[in-house]
Amino acid sequence: MALREDAGSVQAGDGMFMKGEKCELHALEGSDYEVSTFASHVNAGFTTRHLFTGSIPMRQIDVKEVWERERKAGSVEFAIYLPIIGGENSRRFVGTCGLYSHRDIYRGWELRILVFTPDAIGHGIGTEATELTVNYAFERLNAHRVWLGVNAENIGAIKCYSKVGFKEEGRLREELYCFGHYVDAIRMGVLESEWTSASPAKA
Prior knowledge:
Elements: E1 16-19, E2 24-27, H1 32-44, H2 60-72, E3 76-83, E4 91-103, E5 108-115, H3 125-140, E6 145-151, H4 155-164, E7 167-178, E8 181-191, H5 192-198
Parallel strand pairs: 5-6
Antiparallel strand pairs: 1-2, 2-3, 3-4, 4-5, 6-8, 7-8
């Protein structure tokens, strides 16, 4: 289930923090490239229909301010990159993920992820990025619990989170208002004990 720490690596010089079979997680730097790419794709709205939080349109200055505010609050933010086949040291920025809303006394973190490039959807990239991030929370941040909120109509995301190991913990009825109607919000979570027991390396 879990991608162990040896599935990722830290490489100086290229910003890579963790590496899976499909994607790489880099520290979200807030470079001009990252900010402009994120803003343009989010504003296009191809993969943001089921966003749990946030609003559009977003100006590039808004994106920078949000990322900086989260960093100052102690959040851990990653950029999801895909290596470009045949392009040495070339990578494409396709999404963001991270750990937020840290509650130190309870060792809890909220996971958020957005793959904003349409052609990166449906290939297991979001699942792998979620696995890498959750594994980092338990193996490096000593988390006890990782949780998330998801739009009940976002069936693909719910399947992804369930595959990684998240379990539904509750439902907030008609919590969200999306495209003219109210939608339930589902809370899901995974515990450290569940993650550890599902890991081949610790079985």
